[in-house]
Amino acid sequence: MSHYDFVVIGAGVIGASVAHHLAALGAKSVLVLERSTIGAGTTSQSSGLLRTHYSVKQNVELARSSWWAFNNFAEYVGDDEASCGLVKCGYMISAPDGGKIDPLRASLIAQQDMGIEVQLLDRTEARERLPIAQFDDAALIGYEPEAGFADAYLVATSFARAARRQGVKIMEGVSVTGVVREGRKVVGVQTSAGSFSCGALISTQNIWTPEMAAWMDVELPVKPERHTVLALECDTAAYSFKMPAFKDLGSAGMLYYRSYGGSQMLVSEGVVGETLNAPETEQGDISLDYVGEVGAQVAERFPAYETAGLASSWTGVYDVTPDWNPVLGSVSDIEGLVVGFGFSGHGFKLSPGVGKILAQHALGLPTDVSLGPYALSRFASGALLVGKYGAGAVS
Ligand SMILES: Cc1cc2nc3c(=O)[nH]c(=O)nc-3n(C[C@H](O)[C@H](O)[C@H](O)COP(=O)(O)OP(=O)(O)OC[C@H]3O[C@@H](n4cnc5c(N)ncnc54)[C@H](O)[C@@H]3O)c2cc1C
């Protein structure tokens, strides 16, 4: 049986990032096992938004360190030709009078206290940045210039390429089918390509994490939740790359927006989606009623979009935990197992930072950001990781 010091299950953006960081931190023997192809899981469905705006402080820290990686990507992965497809358009977030004002204000102040550049805009300034929108109801508007969006698939494949360059072996088309244990210690994996022994196993299986739960007979709470993304085209009000990504806390669907391809609008809801019975990334049905419902909210904020056309649409699946924050670290008393799952629709922007701290933890090094708040045990103890917004993808 071949031996690797570290085996990573899954080559989504998180697993690929873990593999890169393990190698960058000095690990000499790393194997990544991916059932499909690199980045083909939920990573390929991501909207790609990058911001540090969160109300959970640890998420802000992880997003900030990750932003540095996105903003200096070629240097970060040590490849002059690497690109993450970053569009540095900034991120605007607004709330009308009501329940969202206090969490928004507190989160913006907390970001500023952490040294992150965040500006408060009045309605005129907001319109100057996003002239296709109206802000008549906006009571508080925040703007984060160092933000934008990037390409999650490109980031996953770039991390994987960087990992391979540093000696990591990545096997695609190989399913992990079980875990080899000696008592409570993980010592290897069974796969469709035979068994491998390992010193430590890192599971980044996203919506397929319940497989690991069954193999280890532990509870790893995560459910697959389908979300819909629409791309709208409006001849008279193009959403250009210069216009910021935008979060509308005043809309019923907590909609988020960004440019798509430099002229279309990408829009999606930030509320609870459709819970699936089993983990799968097949495309779901998108009804015309649904498009009409979201379209009406879009037109309230972007009046010219009253007559916009639907250019394309797709669905993607979130791995949602009970508090919409990830589980990172070890699993109870099991030795040799590290997990990173439950990104609940906001894992891409954290992927460099998460990959690094999971790699640090697996190597027995101090982590840049404490894993404590992300511990699995929080669900049993009731110390859920919830910020001022409550559970949700802004978190
Ligand atoms: C519609 C949508 C929009 C989003 N928008 C944003 C956004 O704007 N900003 C943001 O920050 N985040 C966003 N996200 C979230 C972000 O994209 C995800 O958190 C991130 O891509 C998850 O990466 P991952 O590596 O955990 O999962 P995945 O990419 O799903 O990778 C898991 C991999 O594990 C493999 N695997 C599982 N089990 C096994 C096994 N037994 N053997 C071998 N391989 C296995 C799978 O094949 C898969 O490739 C969005 C997600 C969706 C769906």
TrEMBL record:
It comes from Paraburkholderia sprentiae WSM5005. Residues 5-360 form the FAD dependent oxidoreductase domain. It comes from the Bacteria. GO terms for cellular component: cytoplasm. It holds the Pfam family DAO. The keyword Chaperone does not apply. This is FAD-binding oxidoreductase. Keywords: Oxidoreductase, Plasmid. GO terms for molecular function: oxidoreductase activity. The keyword Oxidoreductase applies.
